[in-house]
Amino acid sequence: MSDLTHLDASGQANMVDVSQKQVTSRVAIAEGRIITRPETIAIIRSGDAKKGDVLGAARLAGIMAAKRTHELIPLCHPLMITKAKVDCVVDEELPGVRVTAEVRVGGQTGVEMEALTAVSVACLTIYDMVKAVDKEMVIEGVRLLEKAGGRSGHYKAEG
Questions:
Q1: Each residue of 77-133: pLDDT tens digit?
Q2: Binding residues for substrate, per the UniProt record (predicted)?
Q3: Disulfide engineering: 147 pairs with which of 28, 56, 73, 151, CB 3.0-4.6 Å?
Q4: Which residues are annotated as a binding site?
């Protein structure tokens, strides 16, 4: 448990004090996907979903989620994000949508949670907007692809 920075000596959860950490440029990239039926992809691609532009709404929801991660995840620091980009790309081979998020900050703590939250909420938004026509969708593969900046250095997922 000594490696878990959010727990004190008695095992109580606390927000980590980052006040003494150096301000550095930090970036995190995350990915996820939502698997759908081919017919659902056709609806998303054509823009015929009854709730509107599925991919546009998902991008905006993901960006908003990145900015509000500290309100959703206990003990996350509120950050002045300098970039939040969410891409939603239809992939006929899945079939489904691949979602990626890139989040940047100049700060004292990383933005991995913000990138992961952005991807998760974008996938949930896609699900919400087309669930009337496809209740069998699966959200999967949400993971951190890459992070840079800070004391722990650079990380890049394999595969």
A1: 999 999 999 999 999 999 999 999 999 999 999 999 999 999 999 999 999 999 999
A2: 75-77, 113-114
A3: 28
A4: 75-77, 113-114
- Binding-site residue numbers for substrate are 75-77, 113-114
Domain ranges of the chain: 24-147
Distance in angstroms between the alpha carbons of the first and the last residue of the chain: 29
Cα–Cα dist 3/130, whole Å: 42
Q: What is the distance between the alpha carbons of residues 72 and 120, in angstroms, rounded to a whole number?
A: 12
CATH fold group of domain 24-147: Alpha-Beta Plaits (3.30.70)
For residue 13, what are its two tokens?
């959860």
Three-state SS sequence of the chain: CCCCCCECCCCCECCCCCCCCCCEEEEEEEEEEEECCHHHHHHHHHCCCCCCCHHHHHHHHHHHHHHCHHHHCCCCCCCCCCEEEEEEEEECCCCEEEEEEEEEEEECCCCHHHHHHHHHHHHHHHHHHHCCCCCCCEEEEEEEEEEECCCCCCEECCC
Please identify every residue annotated as catalytic. Answer: 128
Polymer length in residues for the chain: 159
pTM of the model: 0.91
